[in-house]
Amino acid sequence: MNVTRYKKLYGAKGDMKARLPLRLKNKKCAINIDCPPDECFKYAVLSSLHYHEVQDHRYRASSYREFAEQYDWSTIKFPVSTSQIRLFEKANPHVSVTALKWLEKDKPDCIHNTPYNKLKTKTAVILLVDSHWLGVNRYKIGALFTRPGKHNHAFCPHCMNNFYNEARLNAHITKCAGELSRIEMPTQNSCYQFKDFDKILPVPYCMYIDIEAILEKQETKTPPRTRKLQKHNPVAIGTLIIPSNDLKAPPIESTDKYKSFIGVDCIREFRNYLIETCKDIYNWTKINSHMLANRG
User: Which domain holds residue 46?
Assistant: First the structure.
């Protein structure tokens, strides 16, 4: 067991530019502002949102002060920790913030993102480097996640997935929920089939299990707002082990034999049976591993 003390992530340095790691510096996507003390979060957000509106002196705090009046900073306390970012977003409903942290392994990690909302018309991407918030050029987000020299960057600022071209990114961003994966339901009358059979792992045995239970009425007292009506009590378990069709070695003894456990102790009896069966399959695999490796 590992034990550690929780420590909030703050951006607390100001009145100086952050010393960027060489790999991050070479990516040329971080906006390193020489800002007032403890206000690096403020200028990181402003520089990310308005970098392309500033023509001269893009790395000076004075170039972004005119934009500060467009936002409400009253709900946060400087220096700003990651836990305060949601307060800023709540006070500014049209702004979302995606916060990244530059790791010692010379790569970024997402520490805060906001699900897509039609009301949020602006997205600021900021990066925490050595306790200093930096703005990120939104048009160069992909450089943070890829090696130098790689092209076709079209990263979503919410989920940080690469869509390789602007058309695919624009089609995605209106549906993005800020998650690394998104569930998409099939359309009506469509049929989806699994095709990547070459990627599946060989499985010598498959166990089918079915459990039956009776409903027992609950008479116990429960806390307010919680009402227990019934309890599921297992009374029977049935199981069957089926070997693979292309199994080339003699199967274990319990193969193709239906086994049932009935009564109040069915769970305990099935557990013991399962442990012994797993041992048999493990020993079988050690002896016949060469046959599994040559399948397919």
Answer: 10-173
